[in-house]
Design brief:
Blueprint lengths: L14 E5 L4 H11 L3 E6 L12 E2 L2 E2 H7 L3 E5 L4 H12 L3 E4 L5 H4 L4 H7 L4 E6 L14 H7 L2 H4 L14 H24 L4 E5 H7 L2 H10 L19 E3 L4 E5 L3 H10 L14 H6 L1 H13 L3 H9 L4 E4 L3 H5 L2 H5 L3 E6 L3 E6 L22 H8 L4 H9 L3 E2 L2
Helix pairs in contact: 1-8, 6-9, 8-9
């Protein structure tokens, strides 16, 4: 069930206008909603197009709910003067304005930062885009994979000889949303000192370079070229790879000296501890084939869960390489409320992103996903201060849609 915390969460009292689309922008707004901010999802009269994105659960988009549960929906036509007037009123009474249109679009719409700060000097504007508000590729359109591609990540994901590989989930979108969240929180704090808001610029391309910063720095500093491994449990990375068991795969991270010693004990190879071939991380990599041969045999004779449970008893970092079905059944997912089932107007109930941060006092707030325009009346009446007659006029002029 949804959590309605008595104290409203650590950001209770903060209001955000979410004009984001797809993932990077809306995921940032979701973080604010989970931390108790009032997030107003500003969407088209017929709803945001990503409401239709699959897969679906009993007719509800599993995609849409992950980025928009716990928000309020305001259905508005920003192509109309009346619609723009509504947003103008809300800007004056909000703390954060988030948008991820292509650079320049929000200015054409009449809500660039120069306009916003005149309406509300304390407003904080979050601009999320493919390549940033300035730079050589500013005007290009892009999505998550461009960050993975441009920054070099796809060239290092996978094994030597593979074609470039991107992650299945939108890694770049997610990290960009966290950059936006962190920046906005910092701006809120700085506003307490200066009394002024500011604009924040985050981009998918920027994130793509940050996730590959170590190989990039090594190349720029010394011409060192990072290469893919030969195998997931290969000789070049014998203690930080993936090994096949009788019913699946296990990944281990046993590269440092202390964990290596514990691994030697676990697999009954105590003589390795005094072996000069394995005295350091570097020498273990040089002689990785000898280690890998033993580990491959050891894992192949065990079941995935048994191997993980056994090695964990020796404080060795390891985990099962779950498929989606196995991951969905993990106790960690449910006991720590990473996904939570909430009421849903379409599906009846559905799992949404839950409590990814644990606060000791101000618990995260997990709510249901709004229907299109569900909160239009409430927002227009209680925040924008329209009368019932004015709201009816807005609706009759197709400036807003009421849920």
């Amino acid at each position: 069930m949804s959590t309605q915390n008595g104290n409203g969460g650590p950001l209770s009292g903060i209001r955000m206008l979410d004009l984001g689309r797809y993932q990077a922008g809306p995921r940032c707004a979701l973080m604010f909603a989970r931390m108790g901010a009032e997030v107003i999802k500003v969407e088209a009269l017929k709803g945001d197009e990503s409401r239709q994105n699959g897969p679906t659960v009993r007719g509800q988009s599993a995609y849409w709910v992950q980025y928009n549960s716990g928000k309020k929906s305001l259905a508005i036509d920003l192509r109309t003067d009346k619609g723009k007037e509504v947003l103008t009123r809300l800007v004056r009474k909000s703390d954060i304005f988030l948008q991820n249109f292509r650079p320049g679009t929000i200015d054409i719409m009449g809500f660039g930062y120069d306009v916003l700060k005149k309406l509300n000097p304390k407003i904080i504007m979050i601009n999320a885009s493919a390549y940033g508000q300035y730079g050589p590729h500013r005007d290009k359109v892009g999505f998550d994979p461009i960050g993975q591609a441009m920054g070099g990540l796809m060239s290092l994901t996978g094994l030597k000889g593979d074609p470039p590989i991107k992650t299945y989930f939108p890694l770049i979108d997610r990290i960009t949303s966290l950059h936006a969240t962190i920046g906005a929180l910092a701006a809120l704090w700085e506003r307490e000192i200066s009394g002024e808001g500011q604009a924040i610029d985050v981009s998918l391309a920027d994130t793509g370079f940050t996730v590959n910063e170590i190989p990039l720095a090594a190349y720029l500093g010394d011409g060192y070229i990072t290469e893919r491994a030969d195998s997931y449990g290969g000789a070049d990375n014998p203690l930080g790879g993936m090994y096949e068991t009788s019913d699946g795969f296990v990944i281990i991270a046993a590269g440092n000296d202390n964990i290596f010693k514990r691994l030697c004990e676990a697999i009954e190879k105590p003589e390795w501890i005094a072996d000069e071939r394995f005295a350091s991380r570097a020498s273990r990599a040089e002689n990785g084939e000898a280690i890998n041969t033993v580990l491959s045999t050891w894992f192949s004779n065990r079941k995935m869960k048994d191997a993980v449970e056994y090695l964990s008893g020796f404080s060795i970092a390891c985990a099962p390489v779950n498929n989606v079905e196995q991951a969905a059944q993990e106790s960690h997912l449910h006991e720590r409320e990473i996904l939570m089932e909430v009421p849903d107007a379409i599906a009846g109930k559905i799992h949404v992103a839950g409590k990814m941060i644990k606060f000791s006092r101000t618990e995260m707030v997990v709510g249901s996903t709004p229907t299109v325009g569900q909160h239009t009346d409430e927002i227009l009446r209680d925040i924008a201060e329209y009368t019932e007659e004015e709201i009816e006029e807005l609706e009759s002029n197709n400036a807003v849609a009421r849920g």
